[in-house]
Specification:
With 302 residues, the chain is mainly α. It contains eight helices and three strands, in the order αααααααββαβ. α8 links the parallel β2 and β3. It is elongated, with a radius of gyration of 25 Å.
């Protein structure tokens, strides 16, 4: 069994902690200026940055938990913490979008004066910080957890762009509705990303087969291993987003050749599908059992 995917990535946690501190440090500044200047876009961006800081802190905690060694009580380790963090992050984004939408509609109904120059300068600084944080995350470890954190930061980066555009338009054209309108546009972009992230997190927590793996293709490939008559009870899931696990029953022509069949099966899974943790169980060819999609248990009653 290969453990190539169990190696720790200590740099991921440090990067997330640094990103958290940078994000949180500027959120307070942006919120204060936004309230003083009367800019919903800037306050929304500050709120998003606070949400980002919480998301990054969750991601850092999940990265630390995922690196913890296995134990008798948690024989698979704590990698599923990454799915939980992604779920919480996506729900946080949805709450933010709801608040942003309600505030923007209220602002459109009751326009308020905005200090365009202050908004522009603050948003520009926020944009620079978000670019730095996004760069730190993009060059680090890639997994569902860090992608969730990066989604937050990219959404916040777009929020900074919207706030900057809002400040410039108000400064040079004096058109106040641009502030809530751009806030609504950013909210729509964040909504799409958060729903996609929520789907992935729920899929992982429900032990669905990773989206990168075609279960039917894996089943037919295993059935094609020399000495294998058929495959059934095939299950593929993941404890961590990038660590698929597999178990399957292989009906073999000659049980005496099981060792070579098992080695060939493990080699196939590792080389073709990047599955390094598999449990293959042999069964003698006493009856015909065919692999089906989706994997079912109806043959057990046949």
């Amino acid at each position: 069994m290969s453990h190539a995917h169990d190696h720790a990535h200590p740099g991921a946690g440090a990067t997330l902690i640094l990103a958290t501190l940078l994000t949180l440090a500027f959120a307070g500044v942006e919120a204060g200026v936004g309230l003083w200047a009367g800019s919903l876009a800037l306050v929304a961006d500050a709120g998003h940055m606070v949400n980002d800081a919480a998301a990054l802190a969750l991601a850092a905690g999940a990265a630390w938990l995922a690196r913890r060694p296995t134990s008798l009580r948690h024989s698979y380790g704590l990698g599923r913490a990454e799915f939980i963090a992604a779920l919480i992050n996506s729900l946080g984004l949805l709450v933010l979008v709801a608040w942003l939408t309600v505030s923007a509609v209220q602002r459109l109904q009751s326009p308020q004066a905005v200090q365009g120059e202050a908004v522009s300068v603050t948003a520009a600084i926020g944009l620079a910080i978000n670019l730095l944080v996004a760069w730190l995350l993009a060059r680090g470890e890639k997994n569902l957890n860090t992608r969730a954190a990066l989604l937050h930061v990219i959404g916040d980066l777009l929020g900074s762009v919207a706030a900057l555009l809002s400040g410039l338009v108000i400064t040079f054209a004096g058109w106040m509705p641009i502030d809530p309108l751009l806030s609504l546009a950013i909210g729509a972009l964040i909504l799409v990303s958060s729903l996609r992230l929520l789907r992935e997190a729920l899929h992982g927590l429900m032990e669905g087969a990773p989206f990168s793996v075609d279960t039917e293709e894996v089943g037919h490939a295993l059935a094609g291993v020399p000495g294998v008559a058929s495959v059934h009870d095939l299950h593929i899931w993941a404890v961590k987003a990038e660590q698929p696990l597999l178990s399957a029953h292989l009906v073999v022509h000659d049980i005496a050749h099981w060792e070579s069949v098992m080695e060939a099966g493990h080699a196939l899974l590792a080389e073709r599908f990047d599955i390094h943790h598999a449990t293959l169980q042999p069964e003698p060819m006493t009856r015909t059992v065919h692999w089906r999609e989706p994997p079912g248990h109806e043959h057990e009653h046949g």
